[in-house]
Design brief:
The complex is a heterodimer of chains A (about 350) and B (about 170). Chain A has about 350 residues and is mainly α. Chain A is about 65% helix and about 0% strand. Chain B contains 6 helices and no strands. In chain B, helix 1 runs antiparallel to helix 2. The chains are: A mainly alpha (about 350), B mainly alpha (about 170).
Amino acid sequence: MSMVSVLAVDLPYWAQSLLRVLGGLVAVLLPAGTIVYVFLFKMMSFMQSRLGPMEAGPYGSMQLFAEVGKWLQKEDIYPERADKFIFKLAPLIVLASTFLLVAVVPFGPDAWFTNFEAGIFYALAVSSVSVLGILIAGWASANKYSLLGGLRAAGQLIAYELPMVLAVIGVVIQAGSMNLQDIVLAQNAGSIFGWDGLGNPYVLTQFVGFIIFMIAVQAELTQAPFDMPIAESELVSGYMTEYSGFRFLIFFIGEFATAGVFAMIASILFLGGWGVPFAWFGWTDMDSVDNWMNIVGPLILFTKMMLVVFVVMWVRFSYPRFREDQLQRFAWKVLIPISLVNIMVTAILKVAF
Amino acid sequence: MMLAADVLVAQNIGFGVIAVIMVVGALRVVTTSNIVHAALWLVTVLAGAAAQYVLLAAEFVAVTQVLVYIGAVMVLFLFGTMLTRARIGAEKDVNNKNWFMGVPIAVLLLATMLLALNDGFGDEKLPADPDTLVNTQMISDQIFGPYLLPFWALSFVLLAAVIGAIVLARRD
């Protein structure tokens, strides 16, 4: 069982591996490109009463390729006193964390890269690796603004990782599994007081967890109002100040690809992932799901991802930046206590029912 | 007799490659003259350990290793050094004068570990059937079953550490 069995052909191991790598590239780069064009170029422009890019291609849809071309042409420069090896290594660590993250995302009943038993735990673990890249990027730039940005980023990501993990625990308790495929199954095969027309998406039962998770995602992605680490007005882009050309491009892709992957994980945890309520087609478990879901599933997941990213970007373009102390206080004194209460209530209800 | 089919060739090669990387990383941690570089070499060693756990099919332990050591401990470590002193380029006097005192302790620890492993497992091998391997649920059943009391004791140690940190951080 793998992505390949969709096509009903047996491929050799190397071909499967190659297919998985290509699939991973598509799963990371396609959402990133779509998010940048639809939300960063167009939605932001409309919200600010302007048109955004219009020249390159119809409605400026080719603008992204022009931008990538521009970045790739730029000279590869680094500060004279920078720690060159680490300076070059840092963006790669950030991007690698994104690619590791997408490896556990299921796209359909058989369309997954790895069906990891501790899936969501793994996702939370590898997402925290990107902090390392950001920290050493700030340090290796030999620039006070960069170092300050890197330190702010680390402080923020550590603070908001906790509520994120705690919010996920509610879902894990309810689904009884850390496997993302099992969580999808539990939601779509579930029922609300015996009515199974909607399945049982956890956004209903775990609404508090969903809100906390989305706030934590916003902070982990360093999107406004949590963009202290790259505050352009005070830190001139923080840890990214000294990066230009394709190294900046890697950071840029990393940021929006991670946004896409986190949105996918949010829709898997709370919105039913790639599935539709199984009762619609008379499915009962994973094996009875029809094979065409391997094609439709990724599209459903993509749609849900776009919805979640829309909310993230909407908040980003609407609210002003937090102050550093407000940001830390909000995480430690508001989000963490609420999520602890959420876990307690979920556990009690789980035992009671 | 050990047949060729019983030997996991790919796993053994993987083990060897990762082990070499880990040993080189460990040596570089103590020989490099830059604190941040040392921390990053330590990350290499810890990531190598996580990879070895994956080879042993202990995925929960591997993920915990990444989450705790790379995602939290090392980040905190780098955070601390960058806040206080972390210059770019080589530094003098990063070595402690009494570094040779560590050698007997390291040898002693190695001997204890070898003895314990050899005594505890001997010639035992991992079961080839993945279904009989320890999974996450079995670990939690053990923690919240027979090992509940030690688990609670450990949580109290952590609680004490948290309270200690608060006491140190408060000014009044």
